[in-house]
Every structure is written in C-alpha cells, then in structure tokens.
Amino acid sequence: MRPALTVARREFAAYFATPVATVFIVIFLVLSGALTFTLGGFFGRGQADLIPFFSFIPWLFLFLVPALTMRLWAEERRLGTIELLLTLPITAGQAVVGKFLAAWAFCAVALALTFPLVITVNLLGEPDNGVILTGYLGCFLVAGAYLAVGAAISAVTRNQVIAFVLAVAGCFLFAAAGSPVVTEFLSSQFPVLAEVARGMSVSERINGFTRGVISARDFVFFASFIAFWLFVNTVILEHKKAD
C-alpha cells in the first residue's frame, strides 16, 4: 500500500495546486446549500434534519464527481505522462488505487466543509446527530462509487470532455436504476430486471444510511462496486500499457 499512498499524497496535493479544488468546493457548497433550503423545502418541512440535503447529494455528485475524474487518466494520456507514471516502480493497480484515494479524500474534504448545515439544524432544533453522521457516511460511499466508475471511464480516452460526458452517463445509469419510473416500467415488462435494477441502484443504497441504519449488505455492495470498477480501471491501463 505504500506506493499507492505515495501516489495518493501527490495527487491530493495537486488538487490544491490549481484552481480546480477551489472551484469544485465552491460550486458544491453553493449548490448543496441552495438545493437544501429551496427545492428541499427545509423550512417548510418543520423538521430539524438534513434529509433534503442527503436526498440531493447523489444527483449533485452525478455531475460534480465526473468533473474530478475526467482528468485522472485522460489528462495523463493527453500529456503523455501516463507512460512515465507506469514505468515507475509501482504496479498499475497501485497507481489506480492511489489516484482513487486522493480523489475520495478530496470529496471527503468537500463534504466536511458542509458542517454549517449541521450547526444550523442543531441551532434550530434537536436532530439525531447519529443519523446525520450515518447520512454523511452514505454520501461518502456514493462519492466513492461514482469516482470508481468515472476513473475507469477516464482511462479509456484522452479527451477530458468525452470522459466527463461518458462518466455522467455511466453514473446516471446507477443513480436512476432504482427510481420509480425505471422500476415500474421494468416490473411490467421484465420483472427480473426490475429487481436487478433495484439492487444496482447507488441512490437507493443511501436511503438506509439517511435513516440511521447501517446495513452490512449496503457496505458489501459499495465495497464490491468500488473494487470492481477499480479492477476494470487497472485492466484498461494494463491493456494500454501493452499497446
């Protein structure tokens, strides 16, 4: 793990060496706050909790996370530095894990900076902070799932715009798979596929966390999901390296 952590530290520092970090965090904080207090009907609900915030996060990450992942490998390929990286005494898998951990840590920082929302609900009422904590854990896992998908797609192309669009489309499939529109259609046409769609829905998996329920099944899902896409990312890089 030491080589992977070395890559992670380098990549994490690189985020803050450019305006990328500031732009991403500002957009994320503004949108999350605006959606929570406007479309989420925070004050109209009459409850001091962060359910509106957590309900928007999977859809907010749907666009913001691909903005992070589009440069992970596409930029390396465009600049030709991917060959240099893969000639270092590290495996492709270690490089993949390192870049993923850096991006995941960055998402953790962005989530942590929403702490004013937690302070606000505690000032307005007496929320269950344990439920809020598990909700944040669910958001963190959703970010990891989207990052793994986006990173694998970024390794396919050297064009960042294409990587972004494909990552949004890929993440959308897993976000919308459990929506009522999709499941009702599949239930009437392909009942078996409806169950598969519910099982693969990332946005559905966060519901338990927002209720304060930590399920081992959900943890296994996210761990398997992330591991699978990191494996796909590694295979793609090995293939490109062989070429």
Give a short overview:
The protein is built from 14 helices and no strands. With 243 residues, it is mainly α. The longest helix has 27 residues.
Provide the fold topology.
Elements: H1 2-15, H2 20-37, H3 42-45, H4 51-69, H5 74-79, H6 81-87, H7 92-112, H8 115-124, H9 129-154, H10 160-176, H11 180-189, H12 191-200, H13 202-210, H14 216-242
Helix pairs in contact: 1-7, 2-4, 4-9, 4-10, 4-13, 7-9, 7-14, 9-10, 9-13, 9-14, 11-12
What structural class should be given to the helix and strand makeup?
Answer: mainly alpha
Count, helices: 14
Rg over CA atoms, rounded to whole Å, is: 19 Å
Mean pLDDT: 83
Percent helix, as a range, is: over 70%
What would the principal axes of the Cα set say about the shape? globular
Low-confidence stretches: none
Number of strands: 0
Q: How many structural domains in the coordinates?
A: 1
Order of helices and strands: HHHHHHHHHHHHHH
Straight-line N-to-C gap: 27 Å
* Oligomeric state of shown chains: single chain
Largest sheet: none
How much of the sequence is in beta strands? under 5%
What does this structure look like?
The chain crosses the membrane at residues 12-39, 51-74, 95-119, 131-149, 161-182, 219-237. It is a multi-pass membrane protein. It is found in: Cell membrane. The protein is globular. Helix 9 (129-154) packs antiparallel against helix 13. The model has no long low-confidence stretch (mean pLDDT 83). 81% of the residues lie in helices and 0% in strands. The relative contact order is 0.14. By secondary structure, it is mainly α. It has 14 helices and no strands. It has one domain (2-242).
